[in-house]
Amino acid sequence: MISALQFKSGYPLKLPGIGGRRIAFGDRINVLFGPNGAGKTTILSTLAAACGCGEGGWSNGRDGGEAPFGATVQRDGQPVFYQDCYRDSEQSFVGADYLEANAHLRSTGEKRIGLVNELIDYIEDRFLTYRQKRTDRPTLLLDEVDNHIGFAGQAILWGELFARLSKKYQLIIATHSIFPILLRRDSNLRRDNIILLSPQYDHVCLQELGRAIDYYNRQRGS
User: Fold this and answer.
1) Comparing C-alpha atoms, which of 82, 37, 4 is closest to residue 197?
2) pLDDT, tens digit, 9 for 90 and up, residues 99-114
3) What is 2-219's CATH number?
4) Best CA proximity match to 34, nearest among 205, 192, 214, 208
5) CA distance 219 to 25
6) Which helix (H) or strand (E) holds 31?
7) DSSP alpha helices (H): ranges in the chain?
């Protein structure tokens, strides 16, 4: 797993949400949350480079690369998978073929029985988890994997899918979605680590969501 990241040089030091602070990661769900330009992709690509999977896909976790910006990355020897939504990669988190075959994930369609298990099986087949030991806990670095999925699909991803995956993987996910804030867990069983990269950005998003809901209710006389 990856336990921490700290930048030593370059423009990340000038970003308000990053700077020279030590960014710590928990062993289950870690969410990099902030607007465009806040540094989400920079953090993920730096972690990927340091772990030897900067071009995407799997690393073996042991043979790392050179981290940009003189960054220090604390990690163990577990495998790391990097999904970069900005690259044309056949190893994407959720492939276009799956979204074409399951329209309810990219629209406002309702949740079906078995959907979560179906998608879990699909993802684990791509990630080749059968090759891992039962004691292994690989890391998934996922860059905005929910930005092409409809609102209902996002609710399923954050409410059920990522929760299931976090039992087997460490997840570090960059997102704009409001769902990890709405569905955040903080208990003895699971503590979601929300890493805010822009001050008050979560409050702004929640405020605007509330205004939209109020408008919707007023229009329908609720």
Assistant:
1) 37
2) 667 666 655 444 454 5
3) 3.40.50.300
4) 205
5) 43
6) strand 29-33
7) 40-51, 96-101, 115-126, 151-156, 162-165, 179-182, 201-219
